[in-house]
């Protein structure tokens, strides 16, 4: 079995002391959205979380929203996308057959559009959030434009 750990998004929210446990309260923190690329045979790959995607880097206001951008200060570098990292490993993006999402916050799902052939799996609870009308509290975290090309997803328990 082969497992690659990927940094699929770097975020710099406020208050390094509160987030990272060191530094000052006004210094930016550093958070990384980790993705895992897993294969049992080297031919078919599973991606666990996708981080930010190529389109998020191109259209951040539209895909991530002003509030998320202001709160998290993401690094919008397409080299950090899962797609770019998969390709840098010599793996064709089409070889990513399945995507497993731990949750559907925008910094974990933006890259699903970079793997249009993959089947997306998520928990029944997250599937329900994806389908429910979004209240103000969730609107900064969930952006349906990121999963429009995969409108159904596959809920699993």
TrEMBL record:
Residues 38-121 form the Metallo-beta-lactamase domain. The keyword Hydrolase applies. The keyword Hydrolase applies. Pfam families: Lactamase_B (PF00753). GO terms for molecular function: hydrolase activity; metal ion binding. InterPro entries: MBL_superfamily_lactonases, Metallo-B-lactamas, RibonucZ/Hydroxyglut_hydro. Keywords: Hydrolase, Metal-binding, Zinc. Belongs to the metallo-beta-lactamase superfamily. This is MBL fold metallo-hydrolase. It comes from Actinomyces bowdenii.
């Amino acid at each position: 079995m082969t497992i690659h750990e990927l940094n699929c998004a770097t975020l710099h929210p406020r208050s390094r002391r509160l987030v990272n446990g060191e530094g000052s309260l006004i210094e930016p923190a550093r958070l990384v959205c980790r993705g895992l690329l897993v294969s049992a045979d080297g031919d078919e790959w599973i991606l666990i979380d996708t981080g930010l995607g190529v389109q998020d880097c191109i259209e951040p206001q539209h895909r991530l929203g002003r509030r998320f951008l202001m709160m998290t200060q993401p690094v919008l570098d397409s080299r950090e996308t899962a797609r770019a990292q998969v390709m840098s490993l010599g793996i064709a993006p089409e070889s990513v057959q399945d995507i497993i999402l731990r949750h559907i916050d925008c910094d974990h799902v933006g890259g699903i559009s970079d793997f249009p052939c993959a089947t997306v799996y998520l928990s029944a609870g997250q599937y329900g959030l994806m389908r429910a009308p979004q209240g103000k509290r969730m609107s900064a975290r969930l952006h349906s434009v990121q999963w429009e090309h995969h409108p159904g997803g596959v809920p699993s328990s």
